Amino acid sequence: xxxxxxxxxxxxxxxxxxxxxxxxxxxxxxxxxxxxxxxxxxxxxxxxxxxxxxxxxxxxxxxxxxxxxxxxxxxxxxxxxxxxxxxxxxxxxxxxxxxxxxxxxxxxxxxxxxxxxxxxxxxxxxxxxxxxxxxxxxxxxxxxxxxxxxxxxxxxxxxxxxxxxxxxxxxxxxxxxxxxxxxxxxxxxxxxxxxxxxxxxxxxxxxxxxxxxxx
Length: 215
What we know:
The chain is α/β, with parallel strands linked by helices. The protein has seven helices and twelve strands.
């Protein structure tokens, strides 16, 4: 089972801590805002505010790195997983272009719920593409897509509560890496283990250390 540090790449300090802990992948959320590739999970409300769940913060009060900063901090480490956020699709070609300039040939994983974004990386053989699904309808569409595909996808990232052992088994038979989220508690880790998934995505570094220690 691989260990993925959920959102750790959104902070340069947490990125370094996760890499030093030995996780297999570090996720970073990438958004295009006013011509800049910003690394953050929270959504922008106009020019000056960020919204994340119930919290609203002023932009000036938060440190938001750009993707170029994250790539520089990673220093060519191949363990980045970039989760591309919408609503528009234009973030994908911008990320692809930056990767070709700033980290040419460096293996990287790209994940998104908007699967058309992955087409921007068709010419980049070192980019591992991951299809994400967060609701039942999206999972059903994803299963249909994978059944019709000529070749297996590198991986999928699926909300834990959506999965059954039968679905996981089918995905694994197709040669697809199955990662689940959120796995932030021992109970969630136990469920993911029972399902037989091949990776967990967690904000809890202690949970990820337990995964690493069990291998």
